[in-house]
Amino acid sequence: MTDLSQRARQILYACITEFVASGEPVGSRTLSKKGIELSPASIRNVLSDLEELGYLHQPHTSAGRVPTDKAFRLFIDAMMDLRPLSDEENASILMRFSEIEPGPNFLRETGRLLSELAGTAAVVVSPKAESMTLKHLRFIRTMPGELLAVLVMANGSVQNRFLKASVEESELVKVHNLLDDVIEGRTLGELRDLFLRRKKAESVQHDAVRKVAFELGEAALAEAADAGADIVIEGRAKLLGLPEFSDAQGLKGVVNALDEAEGIVRLLDATLAAKSMVVVVGHEAGDLAGGQLSIIGAAYKNQGRTAGSVGIIGPTRMDYPKVVPLVTATANAMSSLSERRERDDESEKR
């Protein structure tokens, strides 16, 4: 901000907040009515300077000016005052989360809640399979030479897969007891590597039950740990209904961006690796929707580890002071819910 005077910062701030509110190019007369004690002519001079510095651009010669990505980046990093959620709003979010059942609908219901609160599209990314914590692993005999492996994750999701194996019921009891001792608190990725190491150990080669247990464990986790993350986008209609995407080109760009959700996830993964919250503005996301979208994302955790991410996809003129705290609160609520379920599981074991 060293290249901007106090007057320029004041006018740029007013220009950004007015554009966020109206979606229309902002002119000097509009700003003069917003409490800036300068003549329209003086304001025009400052606007011209800001345009020359790359903070504003003028869509048409006779139109007002629109903030650029550079302006929004400055606003986000150094100018905006976040509007923290009230205790009542935080309590409401936590209550809504407590009503969401664990399992496959958890991501979708989370996305719907955040989309409803923010008024635009929300994206929720599940934990990568290898980072998910395994709660139970059981093998059920289905027919001679075949077992059904049932994997129950700490977040309540369940995976099933059939394995070719001939194991007696009495041996399965020993297998389950042995695996229960090593599964607790470990992720699928950690267990996959552990089973592989144990299976190769010389001591295991001479212990029939341990050998079978680790072979079955490795087989059950082989595909599960390599599975990709689930991606849910809710509130597409809210985003597509915004005025900046009313023309055919803008609509097409947003639809294509939402259809290529993996690109959004890669962007979140890359940026969240360094911090727990990120705001990507316009062309900072590359060619995503022609630079017309911004993404606000936050990581949520499970047992202290980054599990997945949750975020908002909206136009560059998003109400950042409102939306950033909403995304943060949602990520915190998801982390708290995971921790609470872990504690409840521990209490049940006792």
Topology:
Blueprint (H helix, E strand, L loop, with lengths): L5 H17 L5 H5 L7 H13 L3 E2 L8 E2 L1 H11 L7 H12 L6 H14 L2 E5 L8 E10 L2 E8 L4 E7 L4 H15 L4 H13 L1 H4 L2 H17 L6 E4 L1 H5 L7 H12 L1 H12 L4 E5 L11 E10 L2 E11 L4 H30 L1
Antiparallel strand pairs: 1-2, 3-7, 3-10, 4-5, 5-6, 8-9, 9-10
Helix pairs in contact: 1-3, 5-14, 6-14, 7-10, 8-10
What tags apply to this protein structure?
10 strands; alpha+beta; Enolase-like, domain 1; three-stranded antiparallel beta sheet; five-stranded antiparallel beta sheet; elongated; 350 residues; Beta-Lactamase
Strand content: 15-25%
What is the annotated CATH architecture of the largest domain?
2-Layer Sandwich
Structural class: alpha+beta
If you average the pLDDT, what whole number results? 85
Name of the CATH superfamily of the largest domain: GAF domain
Number of domains: 3
The total count of helices amounts to: 14
Secondary structure: number of strands: 10
Summarize the helix and strand pattern as letters: HHHEEHHHEEEEHHHHEHHHEEEH
Q: What is the distance, rounded to the nearest whole angstrom, between the alpha carbons of the first and last residues?
A: 57 Å
- CATH fold descriptor of the largest domain: Beta-Lactamase
Low-confidence stretches: none
Give the strand line-up of the largest sheet. 7-3-10-9-8
Rg, nearest Å = 26 Å
- What best-fitting shape do the alpha-carbon axes yield? elongated
Give the helix proportion (percent range). 40-55%
Largest sheet: 5 strands, antiparallel
Which CATH C-level class of the largest domain is it?
Alpha Beta
Protein name: Heat-inducible transcription repressor HrcA
GO molecular function: DNA binding
Keywords: Repressor, Stress response, Transcription, Transcription regulation
Family: Belongs to the HrcA family.
